[in-house]
Amino acid sequence: MHRPSSARLPAFLIGGLVPAAFASSPAYASDCMAASHASDVADRLTAAESALQSADPDAFQGAMEEVSLLVPCLADTLPATTAAQLHRLTGVQEYNSGNAARAAPAFLAARVLDPSYHFPASEFSAEHPIRQNYDAENAGQFKDKKAPEPKIGSITFDGTGTRQRPVDRNTVLQLLNPSNQVTQTTYLLPDQPLPNYPAVPHLRNSLLIGSLAALAGSAACYGGAWATHASFNSDDPTYTLDKLKSYQGATNALFAASISLGAVAIGGGTGALLVGAR
User: Checking phi first, is residue 228 left (phi over 0); if not, alpha (psi -120 to 50) or beta?
Assistant: First the structure.
């Protein structure tokens, strides 16, 4: 990405705009005075873009402040195209406030969602640092990480039903109930943790399954060791010295395996307790 240029921003962008004031804590639809809709967000974002073109800083700031209030109260899923527009204009706010580092992940999010978009000359000239920084973000290079699976309902990122959470760029997380109704919307920055929600404990379950399997293996090995030990101690006149040594070796090996698998079972069970519902 290009480093911030010393070139002056347009006059209407110098007047102290602040970054979008999205709530840092999760917002639930039930906490809002009234539900908002994706179409409402799209309308205000379009108004913000019109303000860029008409050089109206107050209208731009007002529209973006309204967006920051509407997003946490969404009653429907935000389309990917609207999410791209949201990230793009959030990046403009961040850059104008002097936070080029915070503008970058917003611009990258927009580029990944809508790689064909470029700021029109009516908003920023080709030489403008905002447009240059935006175009410099590589939409083909990004990082995702699987988010925990909700116990109830589903999860979306930027309007797409997926558990792949963007980790190097901004994203809009939405939780849906089994009826696909939005119950929570959070605008996340890359360094912000996921909001708490009841998740399927995949890691705990895997540890418990592994622990039970190891316990079963330990019991089987112990049973085998007991059987070979009984054969070793039996009074059979046909046994040779080599036969007795083979029984002794098998007994020792099976007993050692039983001890090792038992330790694995204990470790897995302890790990399941430690990780809890994850």
Answer: alpha
Q: Report the C-alpha gap between 70 and 76 in whole angstroms.
A: 11
146 secondary structure, DSSP code: E
55 phi and psi, to 5 degrees? 55, 50
CB of 255 within 8 A of CB of 222?
yes
Pairing of strands 154-157, 27-28: unpaired
Distance CA 123, CA 102 (A): 20
- Whether the full predicted model's pTM is greater than 0.70, yes or no, is no
Give the CA count within 13 Å in the CB-facing half-sphere of 110: 24
Q: Looking at the chain, how many residues does it have? A: 278
CA distance 212 to 121: 64
Residue (of 151, 143, 146) closest to 196 by Cα position: 151
What residues contact residue 4 under an 8 Å CB cut-off, 6+ apart? 95, 100, 129, 133
Could you tell me whether strands 144-146 and 164-166 are parallel, antiparallel, or unpaired per DSSP bridges? antiparallel
199 secondary structure, DSSP code: B
- Give the tens place of pLDDT for each residue, 23-49: 444 444 556 888 999 999 999 999 999
Q: Is the pLDDT of residue 20 over 80?
A: no
- Enter the DSSP assignment of 193: P
Positive or negative, the CA dihedral 249, 252, 257, 260 is: negative
